[in-house]
Amino acid sequence: MKMKNKLKKHSLKFISAFLSIFLWVYVLNSEKVKFEKTVSLEYILPVDMMFAQRPPREVTFLIEGPRAFVRTVSEKEERLVVDLNKANSRKQLNFFVDINPAQLSLPFGMIVERVLPRRIEIHLEKKGSKLVPLKLQYSGQLPENLVLAKAKLEPSEVEVYGPRSVVSKLKSLRIKPIDLDSLNGNEEIPVEVQVGDERLSVTGASDIKFNYELRASISNMKLSRIPIKFPPNRKTINTSVGFADVKLYVPEKVLKNRSNVSSSVEVWAEIPPESRGSLEVPLKVKLPPTVHLLEINPKSIVVNIK
C-alpha cells in the first residue's frame, strides 16, 4: 500500500514537471517576435525591351509572428517573380511596380508589417544590337630579343546586345590585358572581353581567341639544309626545292645543347587540303617551345600536286 502511494506521488511529480516544461516551451515558442527576411526578385521583361537602369534585385520583408516558425521562414530560399508584361499594361517606358506582401508565403499567425522597398521604379528601353570591334590590351613585357608578330583576335568583332542608347554609342570593346611575360612560341589562347556595363551582353564572348607568334629580333644560331616535309596521305608532290635554311634565337641555357635544338626543328610545306596542280605554298617552321624564328629562306616554294 505504501509502495503504491509512493509510486502515485512520484508519478504526479513527473506529470507536473512534464506539464511545466511543456507549458514553458509552448509559451516560449508562442511568443511573437519580429525579424527580417530578404527575398530575391526575378523580372520578366517584354521581348523587345531591356532595363535602362537596373532595378533592385531583392526586397526585405519585416515579419512578425510566433518564434516557433522564425527559423523555418528565415532559412527558406524564396524569390518573387515580377512580370513586367502584366505590370505595365499601358506599355510605358517609366512606371512603378508595387510589391504585394501577400506574394510571400507565410505560416498561419505570421504577418508582414513592412516591405522595403514597397514600390520599385522601372525604367525600360528598346533593345538594340551592334557589331563592335575588339581592341587588344597588353601587360608586362616580352622576354629580351623577342617581338610579337601576327598578333590578332579571332573573331575581331562581337555582337553586343543592350539598351539601344548605350549600344549606339559603343565604338569598341577592350579585352582583358594579355600578359606578355606568359606568352611562349606560336600559340592560340582564350581571352576575356571587358564589357564594363552589366546591362550589356556579348554573343560568343567565351569563344574569342588570341593568335600570335613570338619572333626573334636577333639571331644566334643558323641551321642549313633542313629537309622540307609535306603533309602525309597526299598523292605525288613534286618540287624543285627540297631544303630550307633558318635563322634562330636560342636562349643561352638551351644553346648548350645545340644538337638537341637542330634535331627538333622541322620545316613543313603548308599545302591546302584537296589542292591539285601547280601552286605556291608557304613554309612553316616547327620549333621547340623556347626557340624562336628570325628568318626562313625560302619563305615559300612552288609544288606540283598530282
* Element-level helix/strand string: HEEEHEHEEEEEEHEEEEEEEEEHHEEEE
Rg on CA atoms, Å: 37 Å
Helix- and strand-based class?
alpha+beta
- Largest sheet at a glance? 7 strands, mixed
* CATH top level class name of the largest domain: Mainly Beta
Determine the oligomeric state from the structure.
single chain
Number of helices: 6
**Average residue-wise pLDDT:** 84
Find the count of extended strands (DSSP E, 2+ residues): 23
Distance between the termini: 120 Å
The percent range for helix content is 10-25%
Regions with pLDDT < 50 over 5+ consecutive residues? 22-29
Using the coordinates shown, work out and report the CATH topology of the largest domain. RNA Polymerase Alpha Subunit, Chain A, domain 2
Which band does the percent of strand residues land in? over 45%
- What is the domain tally? 4
Query: Do you know the CATH architecture of the largest domain?
Result: Beta Complex
Please provide a written account of the structure.
It is a single chain. The chain is α+β, with helices and mostly antiparallel strands and 306 residues long. It folds into 4 domains: 1-29; 30-125, RNA Polymerase Alpha Subunit, Chain A, domain 2; 127-216, YbbR-like domain (RNA Polymerase Alpha Subunit, Chain A, domain 2), CATH 2.170.120; 221-305, RNA Polymerase Alpha Subunit, Chain A, domain 2 (Beta Complex). The chain has 6 helices and 23 strands. Strands 2, 5, 7, 10, 11, 14 and 15 form a 7-stranded mixed sheet that branches. Strands 18-23-21-20-17-19-22 form a 7-stranded mixed sheet. The radius of gyration is 37 Å and the shape is elongated.
